[in-house]
Structure formats: C-alpha cells, structure tokens
Design brief:
12% strand; globular; 504 residues; 16 helices; Amidase signature (AS) enzymes
Length: 504
C-alpha cells in the first residue's frame, strides 16, 4: 500500500470512498507520522486521544451505506486558536493552559459534521501575535525544510504539520498573514477568505475586524474542498456574510486546465517590489509572472500608494483591538489564577496577567491601551482607521483595472530561529505583503512558486481578489499550480529534505 500520508486530501478521499482504504488506516498512518517526526518539528501541542474512535465511526457509517461528505474520514489538524470540546484550547498561552471549551468553534463543528477527523491542536504564536511561531508559550515550531528555521507565524504549527506530512489538511487563522506567510515559507497552500466568509465563532479573538479562519493544504484543490466545508453564513457570528457561495473545489478543478488565464488581467503592485525583498524571492515571483503571461494572462503594473503605510496602521489597529479582546483574561472568569495572599482582585489580576502573558502579548496590550487612551485615540487609532480606508480605496481602484493582484507572499524566505526575536520591527516587516488584504477584508491565497535561487528554500506567490471573489483565486491559483508542477515534474514538497533518517 502507498504511504497514506503522502496522498493529497482529494486522493485520500477517493481511496476512502472506493473502500480501498479505511479511515482508521488513514488516521493511524498520520498519528504514526506525528509520533515519528513531531519531536523534531513541534507542530502539535496536543494529539487527540479520540481520533481512531471517530475514524471508526466514519468507517462504520460508510459500510452501512450512509451517504457521506467527500472529505469524510480524512484527517485534519486544528490551530489551537480554535476551541474544541475534546482537546485543550490554549491559543499558545500559559494563561489558558489546560482550558477545555464547552463548545466547538463553528469551523470545527462543520468539519466534524462532514466526517473529518481532528488529529490534534497545532502550535502557534501566543494569541496569534507573531510571524514565526517562536512566541508560543510552549516552545517554537520548526520548518520541515530546515529545522533551524521558522515555519512562519502565527500559524506555523498548521503549516508545518501539512508540510511534514503529519496531516493532509489544517485549519488556520489569518489576522495579518498568519495563513499565507507560513504557506510561503513551508511550500504549502494557504487561503485567507473574504472577511465574513468563514465564521469566527469559537476562534479566540485577537483583532476582531481583521481575524479570518481559512484552510491550509498541499494543493489548491484540497484547500477548496476544506473551504467548501467550513464556509458559509453562521448566525452565531455577527460579522458572517449572508448569501450563497460557489463551490471552491469546483473553481479549483476548473482552473487546473489553465484556460482561465487567457485574457486574465493580473496587477503587479509597483510598491511591493525591489527594496526589502530578497533577490531569490523576487526572482521566483518574476518567473511565476512570466509563466502567467506565457499562458495568456495580461500583466499590468498598478500602483497602491497607501500600501506603504499598511504596517504602521495595522500595528495600531491590531494592538488596540487585542487590548480590548484580551481584557477578558482577568483571573476571575476562566484560565490561570495566581493567588496573592491578602491581595485585592486587582492584585490577583495583575499577577495573573504578568505570569500568564508572554513578552509579545504584553508589548501589544500596552501599545493598544495607549493608542486607545484619552487624548491619543484620534491621533493614533483614529488616524490608522483613516489609512485603512485609503488602502481599501487602493484596492477598489486596482480592481477597476485588473482581475487579480499578484505579489510575493512575503519579502524573504524562512529566517533562522532567533534571528529576529530581539527586533520586533524586523519581525513585523515580514507581513508587508499580506497585511493590506486584512485591512481591506479581501481574500488572498498563497501558492508555492518554487525555491529561492539564493538559499534553496520555498517561496510563494500571493493572489488577491475583490471581496466575495474567493473562487477567482482558486481558479487562478490552480492554473498556476498546474503549470509549475508540470515544470518541476511533481509537487514542490517532493523536493523537501528528508526528516528523521530518510523517512520522508
């Protein structure tokens, strides 16, 4: 039997549907893979004790002739920002260590209903604050391509699990690039859906106007299959968009032919090129743009003059919202409590937050509280929101002329662990290309575009589309994926180094 961990989600789903493979076999193969390599990778914070039982129920239902969803029986990794009833939900923080939720996040509940098998909870920067998964209270995750390098963040655990063949699919969250940037540095596919297109109910909030849940996978089609499961309106989420959505898997299958590229207008942002971008990243991006043009796309240089202010605006809006959202962790209602003999409630709260929050979380809470304080609100938070409006206008102007926008997914390949920990501004700059989409609420996808010529590490290309046009991204992403995979002679991840003594 072929190594089940090497199959894509679509391939594994077909094997399960045909009866050639059972869900128990597929789930056990991935659990064995986790046991084999995760000691080195560190993608998982918790591995489910119930996965095999859940897989057996799917096998029994299939044997009984029940009609099952396409992904029924396929294993799934879940970012620890999403609450689950049967596994701890910590958001990578000591302040929630061991916390058990009384309910599942909507995307988790939908995944279970579709028969997906949660394998475990993946590591992340604490409360999703970071670009490297080094800010987790439980230790860093490592990039399967080079264990001395970061897997991106904050969703490095989900991306690393997929890249290391520990799971065929994963759920992530993207506040400023936390799905797309890890995809870029691990050679995987990551989608940030349109804001409101996927429910945030049950996602531990960082910045409520920016957070979005989305899929992580090894192929565009796999991402579309998972997106079809988790997307759609949710009455529990006040920001959830109403209305019907097309099948994203169908869009990916349509795009795979490459015909969708003929006559497609692709905008290349003048402000997201050159200075600040690693030469190998720029070279890979240029090669992908050339491939699109050869396939019939029209390349149009566009200007987005306010993108250069995106990081500054983002790092006022996000800390302000985080300061408000994290106020609930007060030692009284749930989570960690540090006793202070003879102390007041305020003393206990202060001691608990000091012990429970890491340095990056404290830094952003302080910044956000300051930005929202009397006398500074208009100068900082208010001004940042005005810049946000200007960035939204840049997108509107661009999409009047082009169908999609293309950028490198991040300025550099994966940097070394510890390299930027003492330089927060350098860390923040890593989200240069991804933040604008979150500020505007538009969808984005990162697709592997090759290996950088200067260090041999993975590089991704990002496509952005107007709000609600997620399907357009699946068509374009799948088209380029087909072209590049043919050029490479197989998936990019097949060229990754082996883990654990040649077991890859």
């Amino acid at each position: 039997m072929a190594d089940l961990t090497r199959l894509t989600a679509a391939e594994l789903a077909a094997e399960l549907a045909s009866g050639a493979v059972s869900s128990v076999e597929a789930t056990q193969a991935h659990l064995d893979r986790i046991a084999q390599v995760d000691g080195d990778v560190g993608a998982f914070l918790h591995v489910s004790e119930h996965a095999i039982d859940q897989a057996k129920r799917i096998d029994d239902a299939r044997q009984a002739g029940e009609e099952l969803a396409e992904l029924a029986g396929v294993p799934l990794a879940v970012k620890d920002v999403l609450v689950t009833t049967d596994m701890p939900s910590t958001s990578g923080s000591k302040i929630l260590e061991g916390y058990m939720s009384p309910y599942d996040a909507t995307v988790v509940a939908k995944s279970r209903a579709a028969g997906l098998i949660p394998l475990g909870k993946t590591n992340m920067d604490e409360f999703a604050m970071g670009s490297s998964t080094e800010h987790s209270a439980y230790g860093p995750t490592r990039n399967p391509w080079d264990l001395d390098r970061i897997p991106g963040g904050s969703g490095g655990g989900s991306a690393a699990a997929v890249a290391a063949f520990e799971a065929p699919l994963a759920l992530g969250s993207d506040t400023g690039g936390s799905i797309r940037q890890p995809a870029h540095v691990t050679g995987t596919v990551g989608i940030k859906p349109t804001y409101g297109g996927v429910s945030r109910y049950g996602a531990i909030a960082l910045a409520s106007s920016l957070d979005q849940i989305g899929p992580v996978s090894r192929t565009v089609l796999d991402a579309g299959l998972l997106h079809d499961v988790i997307g759609g309106h949710d009455p529990h989420d006040a920001t959830s968009l109403e209305g019907d959505w097309p099948s994203f898997a169908a869009a990916a299958r349509e795009g795979a032919s490459g015909e969708v590229l003929k006559g497609l207008k692709v905008g290349v942002v003048r402000e997201l090129q050159g200075e600040g971008f690693q030469p190998g990243v720029s070279e890979s991006f240029g090669a992908s743009i050339a491939a699109l043009e050869k396939a019939g796309a029209e390349i149009v240089e566009i200007s987005a003059p306010h993108f250069e202010y995106a990081i500054a605006a983002y790092y006022l809006i996000l800390p302000a919202e985080a300061s408000s959202n994290l106020a609930k962790f007060d030692s009284v209602r749930f989570g960690l409590r540090v006793d202070v003999p003879g102390g007041t409630v305020e003393d206990v709260m202060s001691a608990t937050r000091d012990a429970g929050f890491g340095p990056e979380v404290k830094r952003r809470i302080i910044l956000g509280t300051y930005a929202l304080s009397a006398g500074y609100y208009d100068a900082y938070y208010g001004s940042a929101q005005k810049v946000r409006t200007l960035i939204q206008q840049d997108f509107a102007n661009a999409f009047a002329d082009v169908d999609v926008i293309a950028t490198p997914s991040a300025p550099t390949t994966a940097f070394r662990l510890g390299e930027k920990l003492d330089d927060p501004l350098a860390m923040y700059a890593n989200d240069l290309a991804t933040i604008p989409a979150n500020l505007a609420g538009v969808p984005g996808i990162s697709v592997p575009s090759g290996l950088a010529s200067d260090d041999g590490l993975p590089v991704g290309i990002q496509f952005l589309a107007p709000a609600r046009e997620d399907a357009r991204l699946y068509r374009v992403g799948a088209a380029l994926e087909t072209i590049l995979t043919d050029e490479w002679g197989g998936p990019l991840l097949d060229r990754a180094p082996e883990l654990n003594g040649g077991t890859r």
